[in-house]
Amino acid sequence: MSIAEVNTEPQAGQTAERPLIVDDFSISVATKNGSGSQTANTTLLRALFKMGIPVSGKNVFPSNIQGMPTWYTIRVSKDNYIGRRLHAEIVVAMNPATALEDHQLVEPGGVFMYADDIKIPLNRSDLSYYPIPVKKIASENETDPKLRSYVANMVYVGALAQLLNINLSDIEGALLYHFRGKRKPVDSNMKVVRLSAEWVKANLPKTDPFIVSKLNLTDGLIMIDGNTAAGLGAIYGGVTFAAWYPITPATGVADALNEYLPRLRIDPVTKAPTYAIIQAEDELAALGMVIGAGWAGVRSMTSTSGPGISLMAEFTGYGYFADIPAVIWDVQRMGPSTGMPTKVSQGDIIPAHYLGHGDGRHPCLIPGSVYECFEFGWRAFDVAERLQTPVFVLSDLDLGMNQWMTKPFDYPEEPINRGKVLTAEDLKKLGIGGYKRYRDVDGDGVAWRTLPGTDHPAAAYFTRGTGHNDEAKLSERTDDWEKSMARLARKFETARSIVPAPIVDQVEDAEVGIIAYGSTDAPIVEARSMLAEAGIKTSYMRVRALPLSHAVKAFVAAHKRTYIVEMNSDAQMCQLVRLDMPELATAVRPCNHNDGMPLTAVWISGAITDKEKSK
Amino acid sequence: MTTLPVVKPVSPAPAAAAAVKKVNIIGLERTDYKGADSTLCAGCGHDSIASQIITACYEVGLSPERLIKFSGIGCSSKSPAYFMSRSFGINTLHGRMATVATGALTANHKLNGIGVSGDGDTGSIGLGNFKHMLRRNVHMVYIIENNGVYGLTKGQFSATADVGQELKHAGRNELPPIDLCLEALAADCGFVARGFAGDPKQVVALIKAALSHRGTAVLDIISPCVTFNNKDESTKSYAWGKANDERINDFTFVAPQVEITAEFEPGESKEVELHDGSRILLKRLDQGHNPTDRYAAMTLLQQAREKQMFITGLIYVDSSRESLAEHENLGDVPLARLPNEKLRPSKDTLQKIMASMA
Fold first, then answer.
1. Which of A90, A344, A606, B25 could staple A398 via S-S, CB 3.0–4.6 A?
2. Minimal Cα–Cα distance from B74 to chain A, Å?
3. B106 at A interface, C-beta within 8 A
4. Strand, helix or coil at A542?
5. What residues in A contact B89, CB-CB < 8 Å?
6. What value does the mean pLDDT take over residues A136-145?
7. Which CATH number fits domain A224-406: 3.40.50.970, 1.10.10.10, 3.40.930.10, 1.10.10.60?
8. B358/A293 Cβ within 8 A
9. Residues of B in contact with A454 (CB under 8 A)
10. What is the DSSP string of B46-90?
11. Percent of chain A scored above 90 by pLDDT?
């Protein structure tokens, strides 16, 4: 019997008139945080992924260690739509505290699976109800009470596997991946999964239409989170110094550096590490160290989130004015202030771009996928060293902390570009007076630099955030100041052509343009299909960096109305686009939403449809 | 291919020349260590210290190209521009010298570092960064030019001002001072000394020894502010310093491989070996302070603080703790000198990682 036959076989108890819904639904698992449900959830996600079905998983979690409500949503999509959906068809209620609301939010005609000790009124006639004796099955299998709650999560994995037709061998494979091949925990978890599946088979007739069926749409793909991708990208960009301070949701970047650098950057001969990672006393210190290291000639980075960015303001401005390379990886979360530390936002666009007092605009790279987290991870160092300035990479919590499918990362195709550095040999050739630190010899705003320790009497210069002339000497002369700022303005224009260009899908006859960036790419792809079905043709430009490319202006000019879709309350990118092209400002329309959750395609298409009605 | 002639940092004076210029062990003249003209007030203690830094570096034969000068913001922090122009320098942010130095000296741990900070810079805005740097034990000399007053902002009290001190505009200080030597000791600093800008000989000896320390060496040097805090009754004034300076010890710094010529009577001296093989030959003075005893050092500082005594000398020395670069196990090639091929791991390593995630 083939797998396809198994998967499409009508289940016992299924209502005859309801057609099967195959590989196209969402699951939401409601638990308490700290209960160990992550293992269960990522196991389900990976098992589905290994069955060749496009999936996305999103962890909706509190800023807390143990006991507060947490939801994990898995979207299964044969059409490859991996954006978040507002509600799920299948809800697994494991947390009595939220069960009442979880029950109300199940999509009509959906499934409510619950731990059978949860007592709430089950009063919806449209749902399929599956009570699961979680405690009974768990305690029969695990005598250690400490492990019982962990193992309890495997009960719903087994139950879902049975009801949805997820292969147990794929569950086992996912557990082996999770436990890195360790047989013992895999076996103890699998025992519970099998027992639970058997119990469901024997006791619960299937009354819902949802089912998974093997596809081949994930062949050759991997699953990874954006923070790990960022760390790996930085490593293949030659990161040599990193300083960081723990902060949600950015800690995973440093975790990845700590995991992979010891494997990849040990000198094979001397066995000494060719990198250093320092956990700083705060974010201010972290960027201070990074600036010091970048100034001294290593590829250095820090990773942080909004509150850290605030603390880094003074050093960022310093690096801008003193021409010092640094990479600041910002995994954006909801602000202002402590905000919602575990919720997503794209609220650091303007703060990061303009960070610091006085004048100053900083290049920002904005990855829209985990693939680009890797790519911008290495590219950011080339940009920072070529421009000799702090460079931000603006990821976000959704991209950074959740698992995403991606094609495997490609090895950087370009050689490392360390920018304009003069050696002692170069200085000899230049002769006395030939080197001036801040002289713009190439006219691109980027001057040549020397590194501390360069063994030549003319190598040294004195770096300062105070006014300086092109010889790096202290100067409060008005003409020197204006010269410095004019050079930095030239550098900013140079940056336009160095940072990643936008990705454009321009549709003929489309009156409507959509500009977006970062993690909203996934729901936008789906929203455009919905809009097209409703008769609204759209072009799409995904901006990947600041300063904005000249192509942005051309895109706006080519459409009657361009909506800037983003996750912040101030319509930050919309403001920046309007500033860049005041003559087209009325054609640029905000389309922003900021509630801490990733945007959904339904919201985007609905918002644009509404705006189009009242255009 | 023709090779360019090697340019020496400075050409030694020809032997035949009538007046042979005086050079140090690496063939440099004292003028090779000079900096830009100072813009500080005439008579400022900081200028005296800059001069002693030049003397110490010249005399020990430190290559200017092998030194990085660091500072924060303030009068003191301007002074790295006034010594050793052939050395790289970085005037950082207010209170943040420690962080930049930590990064730079990890990027190139083969270079020497001298940082010049002030009491506002280190004792207030940068106190946290200061202590964390000491905890990490970054290899550098950390000089605090301590005058108890904010100069550039025209005369506010700093956190090191003694109780009862009076300033023209700020009035009387009632809050207890922060003793930066005590703070350094509490943060496990292995080289803690106090000096007085009015005692150049001691300052030179302290800087020389500090340069040989393994890790951060803290020199808290009382450096009078002639404009805002030099009234005779101020504990940070020249007059007070000259009248009340109590040297807790007298010592000679002996460079590695140099034979000790006894200056002191046997039994009166104590030898402390530093990590690079150099030695400090201490003459015990009346107090009999043992600078290798951490508790004694803390007690001494606490007593001095309570009695407002102005003690100077080497308060504590212990070279046993590894520096940050040693802790990080950094190799002989500084990170900043790694060739590109050592920066990017090979293609097959990425392919293996990708395969493991499939």
1. A344
2. 12
3. yes
4. strand
5. 460-463
6. 81
7. 3.40.50.970
8. no
9. 65
10. HHHHHHHHHHHHHHHT--GGGEEEEE-SSHHHHGGGGB-TTSEEE
11. 92
Q: Do A236 and B344 touch (CB under 8 A)?
A: yes
The predicted-structure confidence for B201-249, as pLDDT tens digits, reads as follows: 999 999 999 999 999 999 999 999 999 999 999 999 999 999 999 999 8
Cis peptide upstream of residue A246 (ω within 30 degrees of 0): no
Q: Which two tokens stand for residue A408?
A: 């495997």
Confidence of residue A66 (pLDDT cuts 50, 70, 90): confident
Check CB contact under 8 Å for A238 and B344: yes
Domains A224-406 and A503-613 alike in fold: yes
Q: What is the pLDDT of residues B152-182, one digit of tens each?
A: 999 999 999 999 999 999 999 999 999 999 9
Mutate to test the interface with A, among B341, B344, B348, B349 (most CBs of A within 10 A): B344
Would you call A270 an interface residue with chain B, using a CB distance cutoff of 8 Å?
Answer: yes
Match 């069955």 to its residue by tokens. Answer: A51
- This prediction has a pTM of 0.95
Q: Report which of B65, B298, B223, B113 is spatially closest to residue A455, judged by C-alpha positions.
A: B65
Q: How far is B267 from chain A (nearest CA, A)?
A: 43
Domain boundaries, chain A: 3-219, 224-406, 424-498, 503-613
What number of other Cβ atoms are within 10 A of residue A489's Cβ?
Answer: 13
Using 50, 70 and 90 to split pLDDT, how confident is the model at B283? confident
Is any Cβ of chain B less than 8 angstroms from the Cβ of A466?
yes
**List of residues 6+ apart from A65 with CB closer than 8 A:** A33, A34
Beta strands in B266-358 (DSSP E): 269-273, 279-284, 310-317
What is the pLDDT, as a whole number, of residue A33? Answer: 86
* 8 Å CB contact between A56 and A74: yes
Rg value, chain A, Cα? 27
What topology does CATH give the domain B30-357? Rossmann fold (3.40.50)
Half-sphere exposure of B209 (CA within 13 A, CB side): 34
| A462 at interface of B, judged by CB pairs closer than 8 A | yes
Q: Please check whether residue B255 touches A, CB under 8 A.
A: no
CA distance B103 to A141: 53
Residue B35 · residue B91 · CB < 8 Å: no
More confident site: B26 or B14:
B26
- Is A460 in Cβ contact with B86 (below 8 Å)? yes
Chain A residues whose CB is inside 8 A of the B331 CB are 267, 270, 272-274
The helix (run of H) or strand (run of E) holding residue A286 is helix A283-296
Q: What's the N-to-C CA distance of chain B in angstroms?
A: 51
pLDDT on residue B197: 96
Q: What is the pLDDT of residues A440-483, one digit of tens each?
A: 999 999 999 999 999 999 999 999 999 999 999 999 999 999 99
Question: How high is the mean pLDDT of chain A?
Answer: 95
Q: Say yes or no for a CB contact (<8 Å) between A288 and B331.
A: no
Q: How many helices (H) and strands (E) does chain B have?
A: 11, 15
Assign a CATH topology to domain A3-219. Answer: Pyruvate-ferredoxin Oxidoreductase; domain 3 (3.40.920)
Any idea which fold A503-613 has?
Rossmann fold (3.40.50)
In whole angstroms, give the CA distance from residue A439 to residue A596.
46
